[in-house]
Amino acid sequence: MKWFEYGDEKISHREIMIAIPSMVIGVGILSLPRSIAGATTGSDGWISLLVIGVFFVLLTWIIAKIASSFPNQSFLSYTSLILTKPVAIVFTFLYTIVSIMIAAYEVREISNIAKQYLFDRTPVEVISLIFLLVVVYAVAGSRAGIFRLNMMFLPIIILVALAVFVFNLGWFRLGNLLPVFETSLSDYVKSFSTGITSYVGFGIILFYISLAEKPEKTPRFAVIGMGIPIVVYILLYITCLGVFGHSVTSNLLYPTIELAKEIDIPGGFFERVESVFFVIWIMAIFNTTVMALDIAILALSSIFKSKDKMRLILILSPLVYVVAMYPKDIEGIGVLGNIVGYSAIILTFTVTVLLGVVGKLRRVKQGD
Amino acid sequence: MISRKVCFIVSCSFLFLTGCWDQVDIEERGFIIGSAVDMMGKKENGEYELRLTNQFVIPSTLGAPTQGGGDSDAFTNISATGESMFAISREMAQLTSRSPYWEHLKIIIVSKEIAETKNLFAKIMDIFLRNPSMRRSIKVIVADEDAKNVLDVKPTNEKLPALYIESVMENSFKTASALEPVRVGQVHAYLLNQNSYVIPKITTSGEGIQYEGAAVFHGYDNKMVGMLDGEETKGLNLLTGNAKEGAINIELDDNILTYELEDVKSNLSIDTKDKNNIHISVKVKVEGSIAETFGTENIIKKKTLDEVEKQVKDELEKIINHTIKKAQTELNADIFGIGDMIKERHYDLWQQIKNEWDHGESYFAKSTFHVAVNAEVRATGSSDQTKKHWSER
């Protein structure tokens, strides 16, 4: 059997721009409105989403700046330059672990949701396995193929988010958004801590910029890419509040899915629009999972200098499956989600700060 | 090598292609389109004995529109009793050959006794809000009698009672004396908040149903405290601006004149300087036309029109004030959503009064309403006079 090879393993800066939102938008937004509304008063949650978003846009820009100043060098090699080799290996290894956990979490969460809404009697284990097999198939191919899938899926995903907003305008009540600016500072802080986990994933540019053709252009495009999830999140959050009101939003398990269920196209010729929403959103989660697994493989292969991708996939994907199956109930999945979210954010934040500060102090430049 | 790989993939696929866990043939599904819940009594252990009646569609008798469906009923109502709704619905699966399928549920009817029992209405709604296969657009109604009776009506022009009731509710905008249908998603918000709310009321009359009036619930204990009749509901709809169409009868020189409401806009403003006497000013602007008159006046004269407008204004103010009085004194329930408005616009004040809004200290009952209606006659129909009463001259 032959693998189809694309002509180039290089990606353009536009593909970086698309990859970031494709990675960030995943299962998080399905339950995000609940946790944000639960922590804030009235419609103030959008402020939290914006503040966290802007903070991460800034972080993304710094990461892109650092990574793009070492063109065509992998994360391991430029981190070794700045922070010495052992430290670089540790961080690369940590990234492998976090990426495996992200992939596992996405697999488990989407299987759970699919079981709840679509397959009543199919075991979660089977749904997860089948989803994971498709993910493995995508990862096993060319890396450029993944980026092309992103390019294809992201517009559809954004279109569906917009459709959910437009078709719900009929149920939208502006009064539901009031009162505004009543949240106390401590509540904002609480909402920040629940909100940050939905922005996980922008760290991929640490690895992917080394593949970019014109690295000097990536910071600007990475920032634009990171802006997309902010807009999508705020749009869906406001729609949830306007349609359901504050108290219902904070009590629905998956407000965004319920939003899709609310859609009622007049005339009755097309009912059950949420099935379309599910299909599209599974594409979004598929992209996230594929890239997470791909980063794990990219990181690991840079440590072991292994060229055999298939072997790494065969080692890592059972691991993903085991981690995904570990939580027993919905509470356990939530805990896994929090661990994944916080560890990813803390890791990326630490790496960025270390690279930035030490790089400045030691004046490491390419070719030193 | 290749053939071994292919063999492996093919044998793996057998694992997944053998069948589908969730497959249920459409012929084996029992589509439920309406549910009615009644209370049969209280048990010794303090739990209530509930009766759930589900209306199942029998697709074969529906037939194609041109063929007609024969004489047999196109639905069957199956009842079962028990303590929890889910237990009842499982029991029901044993009573029918088709497995109950909830995705197409359209209406939920709850009997008056359930509504009058503290928190029971909220308990029953749980399953409709929890089951992921049900939609949040299911309509909720309170029956003035046994809820089962309502599902048993045999409308002459429709085959399925539940769909008949649903379309009657959809037509509610034709008269101002019925509430807009309330969806179970809205009920979720009602149950989570502590403000009072109204749910449409339904009664059977002969072969059909009458969809008029409203059941008033207190938000803090989710208990029905009373009902509004058609006229009082009209007052409520006028005040909140939800009335779309409707008719008002006035008397002009001892003859009935019917004014048709065509557009109602209401504007509420709240003065919260003194929380013990909140002033609420209600400005209602109605536009409409003269639909019918029994008299013989030249109605296109300015004087006559002014008189009509004045009479309509007085009549509407009377209706609205009557509803306000009933809500404040008899029911002590804020059915107008004033509490929501205070919460939205005067959040600090709301934090102080929210626990004593329409019970306890009852700031709602202490507040003062100022109602001002502005009525306009936009059209008089296609004739001026249609008759002359020669005999009365």
What does this structure look like?
Chain B: Pfam families: Spore_GerAC, Spore_GerAC_N. Chain B: InterPro entries: GerAC_N (IPR057336), Spore_GerAC-like (IPR008844), Spore_GerAC-like_C (IPR046953), Spore_GerAC_C_sf (IPR038501). Chain B: It is a lipid-anchor. Chain B: This is Germination protein GerLC. Chain B: It is found in: Membrane. Chain A: Keywords: Germination, Membrane, Transmembrane, Transmembrane helix, Transport. The complex is a heterodimer of chains A (368) and B (393). Chain A contains 15 helices and no strands. Chain A is mostly helical and 368 residues long. Chain A has a single domain, classed as Amino acid/polyamine transporter I (Up-down Bundle), CATH 1.20.1740.10. Chain B has 393 residues and is of the alpha/beta class. Chain B has two domains: 203 residues, no CATH class; 156 residues, Nutrient germinant receptor protein C, domain 3 (GMP Synthetase, Chain A, domain 3, 2-Layer Sandwich). Chain B is built from 13 helices and 14 strands. In chain B, strands 1, 2, 3, 4, 5, 6, 7, 8, 9 and 10 form a ten-stranded mixed β-sheet that branches. The longest helix of chain B has 30 residues. Chains A and B meet through helix 12 of A and helix 1, helix 8 and helix 11 of B.
